Amino acid sequence: MIKPEKQLTIPTPTAKGPQFKMPVKLKDRRRVTIYLTLLVLAYLTMVTLPTMLPDHLNLKTASLTFLQNIQIMFFHPGLSNTTFVQLIQALLESILLAFLTTLIGSVIAFVLALVSFRQLVPAWVGLAIQSFMALIRAIPNVLWVLIYSVVFGLGANAAVIGLTFHSVAYLTKVYTDSMEELEPDAIETMRAMGLKNGPIIRQALVPNFIPSYLSWTFIRFEINFADAVAVGAAAGAGGIGYQLFMASSFYFNFHEVGVIVYLILVFAILLEIASYHLRKRVMGNQ
């Protein structure tokens, strides 16, 4: 019997091309750019800040005065130029201003969000609406109030229109983004079944959009309340903002400023608790 010869296996060398190192990732480049920008801004701040301070400023004395005012505000609050009932009424005026502007803005913004929702309308319609809303959001809320105060005069009318105008632009953006994050399968299935936009909105879009609607609306209500305080004196809208302006800039009474700040903080905490329980109840019922 002839045994087969052993087969010789000659290793074939694999061709190795030139070794290239991977370039810096795009994310790393962005991080380096951000760090360099922050360093440049920090350097410019350190260089220009001493030139902005007046020559007669005593930093130690100013710091001690600031700490004393903070101590008076938070540890020794008191009223002398107004009453607690008047402050409560002023706080309610600011709350009602924020509530009205948020309510009107949320209704208009919901309609505009539906009109700009890409699964319901052509893409160019949504792009046009979102671009216009972005232009409105680019101008600060307080500035819109001042612009309308020139047209309607100082008062609550300019504050209502200005806050509502910016609320519509803000809520339209976040409402549309929340709708885009919903699962598109249900909408596509209902559209394949021949249903029109009305039943799709009622049965598929609105039930899943309610938690996001409540969350963003409450966030906007908090923003409008802060802006209502800010424009209380600037636009002559009154409210707790006017009382704060009088106590701090007219009477220089930091005891009253402390009482007003505590009232605003208490309302902000109550609002956060109420929004949490409402969202929890709505999401729990689904």
UniProtKB/TrEMBL annotation:
Name its cellular compartments: Cell membrane
Q: What's the domain of life for this entry?
A: Bacteria
Alphabetized UniProt keyword annotations: Cell membrane, Membrane, Transmembrane, Transmembrane helix, Transport
Q: What is this protein called?
A: ABC transporter permease
A Gene Ontology BP annotation from the UniProt entry: transmembrane transport
| Pfam families documented for this protein | BPD_transp_1
The scientific name of the source species is Secundilactobacillus collinoides
| Chief location | membrane
